[in-house]
Fold this sequence. Notes:
The structure is a single chain. By secondary structure, the chain is mainly alpha-helical. The chain has 2 domains: about 1-100, no CATH class; about 150-180 and about 205-245. It has 7 helices and no strands. The protein is elongated and about 100 Å long. This is Golgi pH regulator. It catalyses: iodide(out) = iodide(in); bromide(in) = bromide(out); fluoride(in) = fluoride(out). One of its GO terms (molecular function) is voltage-gated monoatomic anion channel activity. One of its GO terms (cellular component) is Golgi cisterna membrane.
Amino acid sequence: MSFLIDSSIMITSQILFFGFGWLFFMRQLFKDYEVRQYVVQVIFSVTFAFSCTMFELIIFEILGVLNSSSRYFHWKMNLCVILLILVFMVPFYIGYFIVSNIRLWILSIEQLISRVGVIGVTLMALLSGFGAVNCPYTYMSYFLRNVTDTDILALERRLLQTMDMIISKKKRMAMTRRTMFQKGEEHNKPSGFWGMIKSVTTSAPGSENLTVIQQEVDALEELSRQLFLETADLYATKVQSKETEV
């Protein structure tokens, strides 16, 4: 029962969309033309109706309107119908209309120019689209950076040196903390009121050194990240240049 109700709703909406497409075709698209082809109007209205119905089904899917099986059935049916119209009916009628309007015994210059113009514009559009895609891909290698193995090795060497410096400075920080711990500078703090004031106003002898080393380590780590990104970029550029040359 729910399937019949859903189908009646979809058929009613298709009839309304068909009528709207018919009126739009008559009053907007072909209002200045005296020659009217009713088959063209029907095909346009049917295509418009099924297209709007598919958009309506998308909205119903989002809002949860109608049964899911009914939505799926009408979606498949509308998709098959609109593909049949666009793939078979419209090209067949266009070809039939062109052949039926060709008069071999009265073929004027204007008709020849119009047909040749349509073909020429179509070919120019195809060639321009192909050139717009193929030309940058073909000549991209001229604008890419010339990356050699020496450049990559030099950058990798700088990265390894930076990592060695980071490791050595972290070892130095660890040794400094160990020395401070052994001397009791971190644990044996003075007690009492004057001891608290002294601990606030003064700092441990090795704390300034640790702060400076930590700042150097942070700077070196940032430099290592930049060098790593540059190395990866060089590898990607080299691979892209080889693919372009092939």
